[in-house]
Amino acid sequence: MARRKIALIGGGQIGGIAALLIAQKELGDVVILDIPEKENFVKGKALDIQEMTPIDDSDCNLTATSSYDDVAGADVTIITAGVPRKPGMSREDLLEVNLKIISDVAANLKRVAPDAFHIVLTNPLDSMVYAFKKLTGFPKQKVVGMAGVLDTARFRAFVAMELGVSVEDVAAVVLGGHGPTMVPLPRLCTVGGIPLTELLPKERIDAIVQRTRDAGTEIVKLLGNGSAYFSPAASAVLMAEAYLKDKKRVVPCAAYLEGEYGIHGYYIGVPVIIGAGGVEKVLEVQLTDEERAMLMNSLEAVKKAVAETKL
Ligand code: A3D
Questions:
Q1: Cα dihedral 65, 71, 72, 74 in deg (nearest 10)
Q2: H or E element in which residue 55 lies
Q3: For the structural domain made of 5-145, what CATH number should be given?
Q4: What is each CA distance from 108 to 56, 69, 72, 104, 267, in whole angstroms?
Q5: Which of 165, 227, 285, 297 places its Cα 20 to 30 Å from the Cα of 148?
């Protein structure tokens, strides 16, 4: 079988790490697309990783471009084109500038990659993935937002750090929009099959929930210029791999809801199955009244950002 083709739309911090991870996992050939002013910069990144492949024993061709014609025939796109946060900024502060960029990306991908599985990361995530879907008209199964995989990984990492256990044994779900209103669900978190609520007192769990909500901002403050990129790149690559290998992974993602959780016509974080069909199914979890209220509060924040897109 010919190698699959993965297009990274935006070759900045996340795009570069995603290229590295895709090469190491031999998921397919990589094309990095960026704006003309950055073409040489992304060509340099692609070549650097290409020259690493013999060390890793991985067969993968990496190229970089500013022409969408080179993206034609992509199986997957990972869209990070846009501007990241600086200290003191909310994700919503990026809406105006990133909406223009997403509109440009959508118009081009509609032309060259109508059949790909599109994974959007550009912030503010829930409204940018909404805009991408509206502007392209692509089916909801083929347009998904990456947020929940990362938010869940952060929650799992903090639980593992707190208990001194393997991250492998911590399973968790985080729902809602990608921002301070997200809804980690400690009730459903298990550690080697044991409910987290039996292992930690409520105040420690509450502290982990809060740190998860603030995790992106914590990193923005520490980095001083830009936002997290290793963990977001790994999260997007996990989703790409689930699609390319038809793994049927169960992960939270920003999915387009048409009645699930009582939500109509918005993208928001919910558990889904990702396989060869893209977002094959949204899994509905019975929520407590309190959890449901938090999800609806998060939806209000998403709706506000979506309204600003005027789409
Ligand atoms: P950065 O390193 O600035 O890379 C963005 C790249 O996009 C740059 O190389 C730009 O030149 C490029 N770009 C700008 N406009 C265009 C365009 N029209 N077409 C193609 N490429 C373009 O940022 P980053 O990689 O750190 O972050 C990228 C985005 O992801 C930002 O919007 C972040 O806020 C977002 N992000 C999301 C998460 C989530 O969990 C959802 C996490 C971290 C970052």
A1: 150
A2: helix 53-56
A3: 3.40.50.720
A4: 33, 9, 10, 6, 22
A5: 165
**Identity of residue 61:** N
Ligand 1 centre distance from Cα of residue 228 (Å) = 11
- Tell me whether residue 178 is one of the annotated catalytic residues: yes
Ligand 1: list residues with CB < 6 Å: 9-15, 33-35, 38, 80-85, 94, 98, 101, 104-105, 121-123, 125, 146-147, 150, 178, 226-229, 232
Contact between 27 and 56 under an 8 Å Cβ cutoff? The reply is: no
CATH topology of domain 148-309: L-2-Hydroxyisocaproate Dehydrogenase; Chain A, domain 2 (3.90.110)
Task: Note the pLDDT tens digit of each residue in 202-238.
Answer: 999 999 999 999 999 999 999 999 999 999 999 999 9
Nearest CA to ligand 1 atom 42: 232
Spans of all domains in the chain: 5-145, 148-309
Full-model pTM:
0.99
Amino acid at 62: L
Helix, strand and coil content of the chain, in percent to the nearest 5, comes to 50, 20, 30
Residue with tokens 């991250």: 167
**53 burial type by CB count under 10 A (0-12 exposed, 13-18 middle, 19+ buried):** middle
pLDDT band per the 50, 70, 90 thresholds, residue 164: very high
Residue 158: predicted pLDDT: 98
Alpha carbon distance 8, 1 (integer Å)? 22
Closest CA relative to residue 257, chosen from 271, 244, 247, 268 = 268
